Structure formats: C-alpha cells, structure tokens
Amino acid sequence: MRYLMLVVSAPDEPDDGPAPDIEEWVAKHDASGARILGDRVRPQEDAVGVRVRKGEVLVTDGPFAETKEQVFGFDVIEAADLDEAVAIAAGHPMAYHGALELRPFWAEEGA
Amino acid sequence: MRSAAGRSPRAVTPPGVPSGPGDKAHPGERPTSASDVGTAVTEAFRAEWGRVLAAVARSTGDLDLAEECAQEAFATALRTWARDGVPQRPGAWLTTTARNHALDRLRRRRVEGAKVATAARLAERVDGVPGTDGTGVAGPDPVGAAVADALDEWPDAEGDEDLLRLVFACCHPALPLEGRVALTLRSLTGMTTAQVARAFLVPETTMAQRLTRAKRRIRSTGITFRVPPPELLRERVSAVLAVLYVLFTEGYDAWAEPAQHVAGCAERRALADDAVRCARLVARLLPDEPEARGLLALLLLQHARRDARLAAPPAAAPPAAATVPVSEPVLLEEQDRTLWRGDEIAEGLRVLDDALAERRPGPYQVQAAIAALHSSAPSAGETDWAEIVGLYDVLVTMTPSPVVLLNRAVAVAMLRGPDAGLEALGVVADAPELAAYHLLPATRADLLRRAGRPLEAATELRRALALVDREGDRRLLARRLAEVGAEPAEAPRGAS
C-alpha cells in the first residue's frame, strides 16, 4: 500500500515533549525504501491557486480555503499495510508537535 | 422482566438450518435424520463461526468474501453431513471448505477477467494455505478427498491465531467506533445484520450501511488481518477492550430498563451476554495481557447483579387492582444481594486474582477490583468504602475522566458523609463532558437529600429529569422528586 503522509500543524493541541530526530527518521526510512519521496512546503501565504473556467486560466493568490491547520510538508510512504504506515508515522517528530494524516493511494481494488 | 433473564432471546442459526429440538449428534457418528444434522450444524455455527470467518479473512484479506464463503460452507455442511456423517472436527472441516469456496470464487473471477490482478494475487495467497491443492479450477462441489486429507494437518491453534487477527482488524481505531462495535459483534457471533440492527435499536438499512462502511474502510485504508506490531500493541489491545466494553454497556444499561415498557429491551440485554462471551474469548487469546482478564472480571462481576437491578417501587399507596407496578432501577446499595449470581461472582473473583497476580495493573483491573469489593460485601453498610475510595484514587491517576470522578464522589460520600461527597463532586460540576449527563444532577440530588437539603435536591432532580434519556432512571427520578415533597414538573405520579 502507498500512502501520502501530510505533515500538518495541530494548533489547539499541546506539544508532547521531546520528539525523535527528523534526520534520523528520514535516513531510516530512505534506507528501508519505505520513504519514496518527501519534502517541506512553503506556508499558506505562498500558495497559488490555479483553475480553468470557461476556457480561461484563473490564477489566484492564496489558498482556496483558509484553515487553521497548516500543511508543512509531505512524504510518500510505501508500507505493507496501515499498521506499518502508522508505526512509521508515529516515529516522525511532527507526530509529537503537530499531526500526520495518512491518505491511502487509490489502488486497483478501489473502495 | 427479571424472569426473562437467563437465555438469549434470539437464536443464532446459520441460514437454512431448521431450528428445533433434536438429539445431539456426536462427532463422527452418522446422523440419521435431518434434524440431527441441523443440530450439529447449529452447534458448529455457535462454536466455530468466528474461526471459519477469520481463517478466510486472513488468507484473502477480504472480509466480505470471507462472510460469503463462511456462510456457503455452513450451507454445504448441511448437505454433505447428511450424506457423509458429521466430521470428527467440524471446525476444521468448515474452515477448509470455506477456504475452498474462496479459492473457487477467486479463480472464477480470474477466469472472468474481472479484477484480474487482485483476483490473481488473492488466489495465490489462498493457494499457499493448507487445505487447497492449488491446481486447476475447483470442481462444482469442492468437498471431497482434498478436504479430508487436509483436515489431518489443520492445527486448532491456527484457528485461534486467525481469530485474534480478525478481532484486531474489526476493532481497529481507524474505523468509526459504531462500526467497530457492530462489526466485532457480527464477526464473532455470526449474528445477521438484522439481528445486530435490532440489538442496537437502529433500522436494518442503517446497520447495513454502518457495517458496509467499516468493511470498505478496512480495504481502502489498508487494514490487514494481523496482530499489530509490538510498538502499537499496547494501544491496540486497549482499543479491542474498549470496543468490548461499549458492547457490554449497551446490554448492561438495558438491564436497568423496565423491559415491558421499552421496545427492543430483550435484544439489547442479550448484548451483555454476547460481550461476556467475546471478553472470555479475547482473554483466552491474549494470555499475556492482564487487562484483558481485568475486563472479563469486570464484566462478570457487573453482569452477575443483573437480576437485582430492577424491582417494583415501594408502594406509597396501594396500587389499583390489576395494575402491575412498573419496575424501577435499584441502586447498588439497595439491591437484594441474594439475587446476585454467586457462580459468576466467584468466576469474576478468580479471573481478577489471576490478572492481579501479574502485577501489571490497569484501569480495567482497578474497576474490577472495585466491583469485587462490592460483590464480596455482605451488605452496603459492611462494604470497605475506604478501600474503594483508595482504588478510585488510583483509577483517577490512570484515567482522569469526569465519570470516574463522579463515581469517586459517591464512594467518598459513603465513607465520610454526604457533605464530603458534595465537596468531591464539585470537581466535576462544570465538566463539559457531563453537561448532558443526568447522573450528575441525580447524584447531587441524592447527596443533598441525605444532607437534609430537600429543596435543593428537588431542583437537582428536576434538572436530571430534563436530561434523562432512559425510561428506568426517569421513573426513579420522578418518584424521588415526589418523595422530596415537590410536584413533578410534568409526568404525574402514578401515570401508566
């Protein structure tokens, strides 16, 4: 199973103390092949919206919907199943300071 | 009614099996009549449904397919057992047959070209399990020599492992709680969707959606049928136990409802029995988890009081002729302890001792220890309230929920008097979790009454009556309000 792991803020929740090291987390899961790809992204104020309406390309500044939760980054995770993906996510420092959201890729089995 | 207690009001019977009396068919004996076979299949259904389902679910990763094939296996049993006799090990026979049905279906899917990759991959996985020969397309009747041969090598322990994997999948915290509870119940007992719907007092279509949604999420989020990795095990065992506790509570609450005035009460009460059965199973499957035994002990001890939890109210005036007084809930301190079931209490105490001996305490063991102190006391007055308050203090450090604090305040009142209880209750006075919980004002009313403050007690009783959503408690509160000398806001005394 492949998962998009969104790294988001959790502004209303308390921090959970010392967290694991991000460099170690990246190195570990790059080495095992579980982390396919990942990066940090710039904050909401640098977001650019793009849509096509009546054949015209409309570019807007800012996100489509203002949310309290900020997306800080993402990783693409390859895991045998949900529990393995959860275990990988639970080792990420932002699981302690913010939250991680696992989004399964569409598979051929669908749902 | 209390007399309706002992037996489950619903018979769980596999489809197509005639229910009715019949002599027990002994394993290995050739049955002589259709009713013998029916009885044998029904017994196998009760004892083996979960394991058969779990085995197919694990090897295919598809709970829907597993349900269909398990049902089909029981239907096949009905046909072939009449012809060939009841097998020595019905569970192993059914499991192997269900797997063969699964393999057959997956191969057919592959041949039809539908969902090619998935079917092929799943068929490969099924091929790798005992009981299938892995060659060619299965014949129209998969029951035959292959099944008989495979039976000898089929270990029973394997069935338990699969069952545990199924329980972890059904109780996965990534599923909605309602779906977890319903799916666990259905998977472990083989109850139909209609039966589960009746037990939870929801329309069948609602329950069908709830189950379908949970099963779809198992597939779409990548939940597999396995024991979670060690770093997640502790939380996931808690998740399983929480589901069983919710299941039990559904039934437990119904035991304090006047059954003749509450629709579906009998079905809901049976959930408590189901939950005890499931807790017993999970405690056996998780021998290294004292909390699993703690939960079983807690359920046994609480359920053992069921016959004493309702009684006719003390008649203030002689009831009109031919009027049967409606039962009301009886508080623990006022229950007739001779109605408690001694054998179940004894078992609960044994299971608890066994769990505590591991010296790895947890919230269920502590709650069971509190229940055990109640169960062991000859009367409310002779209860060791100091010990109970001490255990609540421990429980508060483990799970500082407002409900725990509320119950602690009740124990404090028994130990040090109503004023001390009211003071302890102050901690949760503004807890948002209890804002709609009728037992907060009801408890405060009880303490105020005992403290000799009837006017304030009446105010609290009215508040509780505005919140209560249970018929039994509503009647009790209305009578209490009448007793403290105030007029009930609405329901006049003696109605119904």
Automatic annotation (TrEMBL), chain A:
SUPFAM superfamilies tied to this protein: Dimeric alpha+beta barrel
Pfam families: YCII
InterPro entries hit by this protein: Dimeric_a/b-barrel, YCII
Coiled-coil parts of chain: none
Residue ranges annotated for the YCII-related domain, each copy included: 1-104
Family: Belongs to the YciI family.
Name of the protein this chain belongs to: YciI family protein
UniProtKB/TrEMBL annotation, chain B:
Keyword Transcription appears in the UniProt entry: yes
Domain RNA polymerase sigma factor 70 region 4 type: 168-218
The RNA polymerase sigma-70 region domain, residue ranges: 51-110
Domain DUF6596: 236-355
Keyword field contains NADP: no
Region ranges (Disordered): 1-37
One Gene Ontology term of the molecular function aspect: DNA binding
InterPro entries documented for this protein: DUF6596 (IPR046531), RNA_pol_sigma-70_dom (IPR014284), RNA_pol_sigma70_r2 (IPR007627), RNA_pol_sigma70_r4_t2 (IPR013249), RNA_pol_sigma_r2 (IPR013325), RNA_pol_sigma_r3/r4-like (IPR013324), WH-like_DNA-bd_sf (IPR036388)
Keywords from the UniProt entry: Sigma factor, Transcription, Transcription regulation
GO biological process: DNA-templated transcription initiation
Similarity comment: family membership: Belongs to the sigma-70 factor family. ECF subfamily.
Protein name: Sigma-70 family RNA polymerase sigma factor
Organism, scientific name: Antribacter soli
